[in-house]
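C-alpha cells as discussed.
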C-alpha cells in the first residue's frame, strides 16, 4: 500500500458528487478530497488515497468510465506520504 494522488477534471458539479459517491461507496482510504471550479463549468478534483498498484489502477479505470470525466492523472509514490 502506498499513497496515490489523483487529479481529475470533470464537466460539471453533479459529476463531482458522482465521483465522491463512487469513492465513498468503495473501501478506498481517502486522506484528502478537494474540488475547485476550473471555469467554463468544469471542476478540478484533487484526491489523495492509500492504495496498492492494482487498487489505484482500478480507481483510475472506474473514474474513466464516468461519461463526464474529462481527464484523470494518477501519481503513485512512497514520497507522497510526507507531502502535504
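Sequence:
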Amino acid at each position: 500500500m502506498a499513497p496515490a494522488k489523483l487529479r481529475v477534471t470533470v464537466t460539471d458539479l453533479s459529476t463531482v458528487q458522482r465521483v465522491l459517491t463512487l469513492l465513498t461507496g468503495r473501501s478506498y482510504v481517502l486522506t484528502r478530497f478537494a474540488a475547485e471550479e476550473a471555469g467554463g463549468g468544469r471542476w478540478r478534483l484533487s484526491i489523495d488515497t492509500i492504495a496498492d498498484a492494482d487498487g489505484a489502477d482500478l480507481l483510475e479505470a472506474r473514474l474513466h468510465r464516468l461519461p463526464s470525466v474529462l481527464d484523470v492523472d494518477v501519481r503513485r509514490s512512497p514520497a507522497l506520504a510526507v507531502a502535504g
